[in-house]
Amino acid sequence: MTTEINRHHLLALYRALQRSATKFSSYNFRHYFLRRNRLAFREFLGVHPVGQPSSDSKASNPANLNAFYKEQRDQLDIVSRAAAVNRMFEGERLVVERPRIITSGGGAGMEASAGGAGQPVDPQHPRATEGGEPGETVNKAAYKDAPLNKN
Amino acid sequence: MLSKQLIQRLSTKSLASKNSVRAIQHTRKLATPSAPQGMATTVDAGSGPLSAPKDLDNKAIIAPLDSFGFNITAERKSTDPRRPIYLDAQATTPLDPRVLDKMLPWFTNQYGNPHSRTHVYGWESQDGVEEARAHIAGLIGADAKDIIFTSGATEANNMSIKGVARFNKNRKKHIITTQTEHKCVLDSCRQMQEEGFDVTYLPVQTNGLVSLEELEKAIRPDTSIVSIMAVNNEIGVIQPLKEIGQLLRKYKGIHFHTDAAQALGKIPMSVQDMNIDLMSLSGHKIYGPKGVGALYVRRRPRVRIDPLFSGGGQERGLRSGTVPAPLAIGFGEACRIGKLEMQNDHDRISVLRQRLLDGIIGKLDHVNLNGSETATYPGCTNLSFAFVEGESLLMALNDVALSSGSACTSASLEPSYVLRALGADDTMAHSSLRFGISRFTTEAEIDLVVNKIVGVVNKLRDMSPLWEMVQEGIDLRTVEWSG
Predict the structure, then answer these.
(1) Are B178 and B418 in contact (CB under 8 A)?
(2) Which of A45, B79, B196, B477 has minimal Cβ neighbours within 10 Å of its Cβ?
(3) Residues A120, A72: one domain?
(4) What gap in Å lies between CA B214 and CA B312, rounded to an integer?
(5) Which residues in chain A are contacts of B444 at CB distance < 8 A?
(6) What per-residue string of b and e applies to B414-436 under the rule 16 or more CB within 10 Å gives b?
(7) Contact B328, B293 (CB under 8 A)
(8) Where do transmembrane segments lie in this chain (chain B) (predicted)?
(9) Residue B387 buriedness (CB in 10 A; 0-12 / 13-18 / 19+)
(10) Do A92 and B34 touch (CB under 8 A)?
(11) A108 contacts in B (CB within 8 Å)?
């Protein structure tokens, strides 16, 4: 017996997908999958960047809905595995990322400690522990050495 | 807290293994993964840019370890340990994590030879490879049987040009290509010249496109193959393949080969619509693995080629040697994803390119966009910065992984032959940078590179006496240089 896929199923799946996307240690992959998941769900539900789902969304057809749900379930498996592998062979951070001091709380790895569970390593400089959410922006202060003498 | 004794024991115990570890550690710090060899668990929390330098004396590191054995040292390295951002998507693209996930089982459990016919290991590998072949064929509108796996686009290009030319050598002695082709095509043609063939290297117009009239004029009754690339690897222009295909179809017995390594999965390609007889494809340009590529060889009407390799007769006898099943399957998966994501990627990359151009051209004068403005793949943007030396620009841009041209020619100080073929003068060809945007590039990276480029170019120009003269209104071409 199967239950019909409803809004809660889709939302839970979406959250799980986004959560696993944040677990990539590579900046580019993390951002790509966050964006891609959002796009895939928005497109399927007919949600425009601002506003409500449109009535002619693909989600109104149950066959489409089941196919989409299954596809995204598979995607979730793939992304979680891929993120785990990506973390195993983690490299240095990119220059666009904000420096993030790894704190000692939890000991469950970078993603747990950077999420705010841990204590600052150096209480004298709490700013250094300022971790960014996955949607980091360019930290202008980090590039003050760039010789921007014009404009 | 760890006792001194324990630390002592830890360091002596690890001494023997440390030596071997050190031997396999990369010397370039920026390229090392965070020491997976020394990991206690699969997740190394204390690694990355903020951990202690790896090249310190072994005994000097008394790393505090927590109860799970994690190294939780939180020191910054003295030099900036962060990696530069990657904007060189024409050299290679990162392997898509979904592709890696597809490949891993074939690297671990399913290691059979796809050509083994007598057991399940072989059968499953064969099924995987055939599925991949179908995905690749699907992306270019071909039949799965037309796809031959090779080691990459270079091998595919060699196979096409040498194979077709040698097969038809008794009747046909002429090859046509363009001056802006990839080095491996030009080099194969040079090799064929040594074997007694005539080669016409077609010039291109200033926008990088080949002229159809020139092409038609170059055709001779003994022309066996015309090789024109789809998307140029340095300037990103898209050649009018459909028109070329139609033109060549009128002449019987001319084979149309295109090097689509940079086009696959990025712009729609169809071997039927474009009347293409041979097409070279590469895995690592479409977020697939390195070391695998494919050649599309038309079967109807049949294109006959002389194989480069002799051996077991795999791949219809055209390319002997075991097909690397994990790589081929990864390539197939990359093509499957590429087909699904092509439109999204293209839209996204176009937006990023516009952001890049608006940022750079809006803030700097005397910047020249090389190649056509319209018939171009947005992921490859080639800009020339006048009065700036390209190499010094690259040296100053240590936060950005960029290239001044193709990977194979950027080692030499010679200006790019592609830009010279466009008619750019040497100074402009010397000051060019190629921006390769991939599906994984973000807005923040584009903003960073714009900031950096604008800053560095302004700084270099401020130091340049030429720039000073230009600002004073002196036309540099009228200057008589002494010495």
Answers:
(1) no
(2) B477
(3) no
(4) 42
(5) 96, 136-138
(6) ebbbbbbbbebeebbbbbbbbbb
(7) no
(8) none
(9) buried
(10) yes
(11) 45
Q: Quote the tokens at residue B78.
A: 């003295």
Q: In this model, does residue A122 exceed pLDDT 80?
A: no
Q: Are A96 and B445 in contact (CB under 8 A)?
A: yes
- Rounded to whole angstroms, what are the CA distances from B158 to B68, B133, B144, B153, B170? 54, 21, 21, 8, 19
How many domains is chain B built from?
2
| B349 and B309 fall within a common domain | no
Q: Which of A92, A100, A138 sits opposite B444 (nearest CB)?
A: A138
B337, B357, B377: which is the final residue of a domain? B337
Match 């949607």 to its residue by tokens: A135
Q: In the structure, what pLDDT confidence band is assigned to residue B79 with cuts at 50, 70 and 90?
A: low
* Bond from prior residue into B301 cis (ω within 30 degrees of 0): yes
Residue A41 is part of which domain span?
7-89
Residues B394 and B449: their CA atoms lie apart, in Å, by: 12
Task: Work out how many domains chain A is built from and give that number.
Answer: 2
What number of helices (H) and strands (E) belong to chain B?
13, 12
Nearest CB to A151: which of B363, B445, B447?
B363
The partner residue sitting opposite B82, judged by closest CB among A89, A93, A108, is: A93
Q: What pLDDT score does B72 carry?
A: 45
Nearest to B96 by CA among B266, B259, B233, B285: B285
- Per-residue confidence band for B68, with pLDDT thresholds at 50, 70 and 90: low
Question: Is the ipTM here above 0.85?
Answer: no
Distance from CA of B447 to the nearest CA of A (A): 8
Find the CATH number of the domain harbouring B351.
3.90.1150.10
Cross-strand pairs, B383: B369, B433
For B87, nearest residue in chain A (alpha carbons): A28
Handedness of CA B166, B147, B319, B240 (dihedral sign): positive
Percentage of residues in chain B with pLDDT exceeding 90?
67
When pLDDT is averaged across residues B425-450 and rounded to a whole number, the result is 91
- Average pLDDT, whole number, for chain A? 73
- DSSP string of B159-209, one letter each residue: HHHHHHHHHTTTT--EEEEETTS-HHHHHHHHHHHHTT-EEEEE-B-TTSP
Q: HSE of B246 in the Cβ direction (CA atoms, 13 Å)? A: 6
Kindly indicate the confidence band of residue A54, based on its pLDDT and cuts at 50, 70 and 90.
low
Q: Do B441 and A89 touch (CB under 8 A)?
A: no
Angle at A93 between CA A89 and CA A94, to 5 degrees: 125
* pLDDT value, residue B376: 94
Burial class from Cβ neighbours inside 10 Å (0-12, 13-18, 19+) for residue B366 reads middle
Chain A residues within an 8 Å CB radius of B67: 107
H/E run at residue A78: helix A62-88
Asked if B408 is an active-site residue, the reply is yes
Same domain (yes/no): B144, B185: yes
